[in-house]
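Predict the structure of Protein FAM136A.
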Amino acid sequence: MAEAHQTRVQNVVEEMVQSLEREHIRKMQGRMFQCSADCCARPSDSMSQVHQCIERCHTPLAQAQSLVTSELEKFQDRLSRCTMHCNDKAKDLFDSGAKEPAVRSLMDRCVGSCVDDHINLIPSITRRLKENLDSIPQ
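Done. Here is the predicted structure for Protein FAM136A.
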């Protein structure tokens, strides 16, 4: 993927992840640490009970991180498939005798279109992630 296109995608995805981190993940981390501290403040519990308590505290955050990672992987897979289609089109054009500038131009337009299409998916991905994060039991 051309560097400018890659930078555009990275910036938009990074902005989404930072937003999710600020609005959701950070609060979950705070609850996890408070919950874990509460587990450690129970002097009558055995070491095993405290460990199980801490594990329960970590579960919501682990689910959230898994959710975000999975969604980002799906996004990356879709974008990769789109750019592979562009590579195929460019190879076909080159194999049919087209000159390199025409092939590069096709490739740039095609990848640019992939990037635009996938950047346009970010708001719905963000909305879906926020809804799913909000539905994780605390």
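Residues 1-135 form one domain.
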